[in-house]
Amino acid sequence: MEGISRKTMPWQLRTRTQELGRRTLVMGVVNITPDSFSDGGVFLDPEAAVAHALQLLDEGADILDLGAESTRPGSRAGGAKGSMWAPAVHPNDKDLSLGTPAVSADEEQARLLPVLEGILKARPNAVVSVDTYKAATARAALTAGAEIINDVSGFAWDAEMASVCAEFKAGVILMHTRGRPEVWRAQPQLAPDELLATVRAGLVASLAAAAAAGIPPHAVVLDPGYGFGKRFEENYALLARQEELLSLGRPLLAGVSRKSFLGRTLAPLHGGSDAPFEARETASVAALVAAILHGASIVRVHTVRPAVEAARIADAVLSGGREL
Hints:
By secondary structure, the protein is an alpha/beta fold. The protein has one domain: TIM Barrel (Alpha-Beta Barrel), CATH 3.20.20. The chain contains nine helices and ten strands. A hairpin with a 4-residue loop joins strand 1 and strand 2. Helix 1 crosses helix 2, helix 2 packs parallel to helix 3 and helix 8 runs parallel beside helix 9. The longest helix is centred in the middle third of the chain and has 21 residues. The radius of gyration is 18 Å and the shape is globular.
């Protein structure tokens, strides 16, 4: 597509390098939580989580993303107002009074590490990302064999996170999050230009925090953060202009799977109520294709096989039919 410049470039992980841009990589989600918005509790048992992860790999997932704390709207991820937990260091979160998170680092690790270890025992070459904003959990996960840290706060919620990632030479995914989940529903709506400027400024700050910690640019992937502090219609405005973020010089990851803004758009087809998460799969694939055609090199999904097939078609469009 004219105007889309998804460059081929290496992504340096903890022990290996992955090529980005030639074809879209599919990241399969494994939620090890009791309260995730889409599948909370289903894979809380370690054996069930490992089995699910292996199934995602068999269906074509290039990367697994393990998360052990929900960051759904209204949650206390990142800490609620109250006692000090970790100082804000980033314009994405200007409230310095971050209280204790709902899920402690110890509890998060107790859920996460048995699953991570089980996956790597069964598939030693699997590329595993860990979705956490806590430096202590990142350290434990990287020590156990994770390759990537996926920080939804973009290094904003734990002042030690960047240095831990630098120490282990991990690949990092830095997401833009507009505030913390407990305030998302109350935030004012932004015009498209203001929204894009806000996302860009947050990602620039995340890149600066990474550079200050000694993380090289080729270790970083950026995520616009669909649904993370964006109102329903704002996500479409962001998706329509996502390729403008490629000017930051880093590959993009898009996580649109099962998001609430898709359910809101489908409401007229569901009696006026937002479509439940299980009825958002076709919409998720449509949004995934849009994200790829607007420059995403990685897509984060709950259902892998349809995503792999859709990404292959979108990649063929981007390449003009040339062999991938």
